[in-house]
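Bump. Still looking for Branched-chain amino acid ABC transporter substrate-binding protein C-alpha cells.
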Amino acid sequence: MIKKMQDERLKLRNLKHISMVFFIQTVGILAIIIYDGVTKGIDAALSSPVWFVFCISMVVLSLLNLSISIDTYENIMRRPGPYYRIVLLAVCIGLLFGLAGKFLPGGSISGGLIVGSVGFICFLAVFSYGYYLKKKRYDEHKE
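Sorry for the wait, here they are.
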C-alpha cells in the first residue's frame, strides 16, 4: 500500500494551480460576457446565465477574502464596537440607495423602495459577517 505524503510545498503548489485555473476561468467568463455585450447588446449580456455565474463567483471570492483581510489587517486586541452601529450604517446606505432610486431619471417610489431594501439587506449581510468574524477573533484571542 502506498503511503500518502503530506508536504506543505506540494499543498502550496496545488493552491497556486487552483488559483491560476480560477483566474483563467474568470477571464474566459468575462470574455464571453464582453463578446455577448458587443454582438448582442448589453441587455443580452446582462441577462445571460454566464453573467449570473460571474456575479456569484465574485461574491463568494469577496466573502472568502473578507475573512483573510480581517485576520491580516484587524487589530485583534481591540474589541468590536456595538452591533447597532452596523445596523444603522446599513440603514443609512439603504436610504441613500432608495433615494437615488427614486430621484434619478426614470425612478419611482416602488423602484426606490426595492433598490433601498436590496441595498440595506446586502450591506447588512456583509457587515454582519465581518462583525461576526471580528468578534470571533477577539473572543479566541481573549481566551
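The radius of gyration is 21 Å.

Edit: fixed formatting.
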